[in-house]
Write a structure and sequence with these properties.
- The chain has two domains: 158 residues, Quinone Oxidoreductase, Chain A, domain 1 (Alpha-Beta Complex), CATH 3.90.180; 134 residues, 3-Layer(aba) Sandwich (Rossmann fold), CATH 3.40.50.
- The chain contains ten helices and 19 strands.
- The strands form four sheets. Strands 3, 5, 6, 10, 11, 18 and 19 form a seven-stranded mixed β-sheet that branches. The chain has a six-stranded parallel β-sheet with strand order 14-13-12-15-16-17, sandwiched between helices. A three-stranded antiparallel β-sheet has the order 2-1-4, with no helix packed on it.
- The structure holds NADP nicotinamide-adenine-dinucleotide phosphate.
- The site of NADP nicotinamide-adenine-dinucleotide phosphate has 33 residues, from helix 1, helix 3, helix 4 and strand 13.
């Protein structure tokens, strides 16, 4: 079978010929039909992810067949008993250090499988698991988002960001976005955003506040230098939820934080119940994840470069059909 395997940091990837996985106790084989990238895959190839294990098949997201059952795969492995946070001594995510989904076959425990939403193609369904789960927990469990509340989602071109955007629009929230690309902001407006701002514009928050007012919730994965601008657009008692730090460390302005009684939350992936709830939401609202592009496995380096350069709008998917 074909597999994209991580061997060395900063080396072009290639397709390896591997033997089919050996089944562990109670595991089943999934014939992967489509798999989706996450920024995690790029971090791994750049050596910027903990616990790297050369020889591991990459990929956390996948959809495929077990016999003739169409399934999607929950990328959590051993979240543990506490719904509030994963058991850090045991928790891993498919695709490092355990073999992942960029391969024709994967062995998983059947409790990792859910029926593929019927309204989604294999490629659309593969786009869902990791991003959808992260977006769901950040928006609802941590962010407490409900209909009519105002939420700002930063870096809307990102895979998780766009899924958070789609979930928030689906439940009737008022959704605003930032992006480093005016074109991506326009695309988000076309999909239901009430407005947006380019985070590359100096003091973008001023025109944002005068045009749209302030927001009740911010969902961010960038951190970095512009972080305080996100606090500036917050209503008193708003929440800021961070699930990533793409732009690195930030120095938080404490005055902004305490004066407005703001609350900052961290969020990672989501527990198994949240995975089920996320899929239920997708089924209920017939949400179709935005797929930026579908690549063949042979073209994996072009896909990785596109994500590294941040050129995508939505998920980058591999078709293995
Ligand atoms: N904690 C978790 O469980 C978890 C789960 C998933 C992802 N993550 C992390 O979250 C981040 C995003 O992951 P992803 O897979 O969605 O990545 P992605 O698809 O590669 O998206 C990255 C996006 O970051 C945005 N960005 C870049 N600079 C920004 C800035 N200064 N301000 C705001 N946004 C900025 C860009 O948006 P524009 O193109 O619109 O400018 C870009 O599209 C990564 O750091 C990843 O490791 C964490």
């Amino acid at each position: 079978m074909r597999a994209i395997v991580f061997n060395e940091v900063n080396k072009p990837l290639e397709i390896s010929e591997m033997s089919k996985p050996t089944l562990g106790t109670d595991e089943v084989l999934v014939n992967i039909k489509a798999a989706a990238m996450n920024h995690r895959d790029v971090w791994i190839t750049q050596g910027m992810y903990p616990g790297l294990k050369p020889g591991t098949t990459l990929g956390s997201c996948g959809a495929g067949l077990v016999g003739d059952r169409e399934v999607i795969i929950n990328p959590n492995v051993n979240w543990g008993a506490n719904p509030d946070y994963p058991d850090h001594s045991k928790y891993t995510i498919l695709g490092m250090p355990r073999n992942g989904t960029f391969s024709d076959w994967i062995a998983v425990h059947p409790d990792r499988l859910l029926d593929k939403p019927e309204h989604l193609s294999m490629e659309e369904a593969a786009a869902l698991p990791l991003g959808g789960l992260t977006a769901y927990r950040a928006l609802f469990t941590k962010g407490g988002l409900t209909a009519k509340k105002k939420v700002l989602i930063s870096g809307i071109g990102g895979g998780v960001a766009l899924q958070a955007f789609q979930f928030a629009v689906a439940i009737g929230a008022e959704v605003f976005v930032t992006s480093g690309s005016d074109e991506k902001i326009q695309k988000a407006i076309g999909l239901g955003a009430k407005g947006g701002a380019n985070y590359k514009t100096e003091k973008w928050y001023k025109s944002f506040i005068s045009e749209f007012g302030m927001v009740d919730l911010v969902i961010d994965s960038a951190g970095g230098k512009g972080y305080n601008d996100l606090l500036r657009v917050c209503n008193p008692r708003a929440r800021i939820v961070n699930y990533g730090g793409t732009r690195g460390n930030c120095v938080i302005n404490p005055q902004l934080l305490f004066w407005k009684e703001l609350e900052i939350y961290g969020s990672t992936m989501g527990n198994d119940q949240e995975f089920q709830d996320m899929v239920e939401l997708v089924n209920k609202h017939k949400i179709i994840p935005v797929v930026d592009a579908v690549y063949k496995l042979d073209n994996c380096n072009a896909a990785f470069t596109k994500m590294h350069e941040g050129k995508q709008f939505g998920k980058i998917v591999f078709s293995l059909q």
